[in-house]
Amino acid sequence: MLQVQNVSKVYGGFDREYTALEKIDLSIREGEFLCLLGPSGCGKSTLLNILAGFERPSSGRVLLNGVEISGPGHDRVMFFQDAGSALFPWLDCEENVEFGLRLKGVAKAQRREVAARYLETVGLSQHRNKFPSELSGGMRQRLQIARALAIEPAMFLMDEPFAALDALTRRNMHRVLVEIWMATRKTIIFVTHDISEAITMADRIVIMTQGPRSRLRDPIVIELSRPRTPAQAGLGALYNRIESIIGEEQDRAGEAAS
Amino acid sequence: MATVTVMAKAKRHVRWRAPAVTLVSFALALAGWQVMSFAFNPFLIPPPLQVAAAAIPMLKDGELFRNTAVSLVRVAVGFVFGSALAVLIGVPMGRIKLVNDVLDPIIELLRYLSPTAMIPIAVIWFGIGELAKYFLIFWGTFFIVLINTAAGVARTPIARQRAAQCLGATNLQIFILVILPSAIPYIIVGMRIAMASSFMSIIPAEILAADSGLGYLLQTSGLLLQTDRIFVALAAISIIGFITDRLFRWAANRTLSRYMERLALP
């Protein structure tokens, strides 16, 4: 569904060039839950921005169903880590969710009904007239999800959306997200630096190497059933495997630096 | 049971505590004032009752009311024009880099000219009529609201603009539905600060070049060494400034409260 072909991203010019990404090739299937896993500064956000259409690759291209993407669109919705910045603080929950529908010109009654449905899905029904400032961090992220669901995009692009939440809320959000995914089968590309987060949710994990000049390692397919609990068989071994790959990459980066 | 009673007592206690503290503070201030009058010189510092006594004829014959109204109108006109033009210019400044780069150097120089500094040239350009006063208040208001507006527009989180893009908004829609609402709290704050500045600007203008207004009242009372009337004028300025600010805040809250929603950090 989404083809990333030979994408590179270089910032700056003259003698201050910084190659964030180098020759990235990736194929993403429709309906899969893919995690991009990597340390800070490895360019995962850059890649996600390119997939979202906020930035253009310096070379290479990204094809969505065979057509090259040229900018942001409502078929690929981006989720931001700081929900407080991304939400509209002057609109209450209901109005935030309705925003995309208002832009499309959907009638009020229908907007309200769709918004109510998605607020229900994320469990925010009784808060529908509250403002984002009255919600906790986890609730705001759920509101962001509801707002995106309302326009029914094909793809979610999530940039470490739960990183700012406390551990308990984060685990809850994993559950909520996986439930939504299993019900709607949207394509999700989820960026994180947290191995256990990736293992809990993903079909495939693609490890990104340390920047500059980040590359992708071969994808790791996960065939464990969901929902996945920490004590599940195979999970521990998988964690160790991924951790050793990341350790390898960090050693390599350390050698390259010295 | 005992803990519940204690907490109930504490709550009752707290409710009337704040206004009581304010009243006590004012009472103490008045008492302190009275003491200062007699400790120093009742001519230099007229005691509160004498000031009140001087105020009564001024209120009765409308002198205080007339001068206050004149000053208020001058502030209102200058403030409205200054704010309107500042928002009109500030919004493009915050949004379009070229506009900002062109205008910013000029503004950075001009904004150090206080309204008082502009009095001589204002009188030469506009005479000693109302227009000069409007211009001075305009000048005092404009730069403050301009800078706050431009900052507010520029500070719209990029995440919010991008989120709107993903939801299908065109650039124009992002501007009207995302950037302008995000800037409103900053514009309002700028206007509040500018209003205080406006009140402070009108006084020198009325002292130096006017025949009406609270500043004029200050000036004439000063020439005649009528310290009690000076104090009446000073009190009037303080009270009017305080009331106008409260009214502005109330009006902003009534109409724009949803735009003033601050995001609590998680």
CATH top level label of the largest domain in chain A: Alpha Beta
CATH topology of chain B: MetI-like fold
Spatial sequence of strands, sheet with the most strands of chain A: 6-7-8-3-9-10
Please write the string of helix (H) and strand (E) elements of chain B.
HHHHHHHHHHH
Structural class of chain B: mainly alpha
Superfamily at the CATH H level of the largest domain in chain A? Answer: P-loop containing nucleotide triphosphate hydrolases
Instruction: Give start-end ranges of low-pLDDT stretches of chain B.
Output: none
Tell me the number of structural domains of chain B.
1
Give the C-alpha Rg of chain B.
24 Å
Poorly predicted runs of chain A are none
Residue share in β-strands of chain B: under 5%
CATH topology of the largest domain in chain A: Rossmann fold
Distance between the termini of chain B: 35 Å
The domain tally of chain A reads 2
- Gross morphology of chain A: globular
Share of helix of chain A, binned: 25-40%
Total E-strand runs of chain A = 10
Description:
- The complex is a heterodimer of chains A (258) and B (266).
- With 258 residues, chain A is α/β, with parallel strands linked by helices.
- Chain A has 2 domains: 161 residues, P-loop containing nucleotide triphosphate hydrolases (Rossmann fold, 3-Layer(aba) Sandwich); 67 residues, no CATH class.
- In chain A, strands 6-7-8-3-9-10 form a 6-stranded mixed beta sheet, sandwiched between helices. Chain A has a 4-stranded antiparallel beta sheet with strand order 2-1-4-5, with helices on one face.
- Chain A is globular and about 60 Å long.
- Helix content of chain A is 39%, strand content 21%.
- Chain A is built from 8 helices and 10 strands.
- With 266 residues, chain B is mainly alpha-helical.
- The interface between A and B is medium-sized, with 37 and 24 residues.
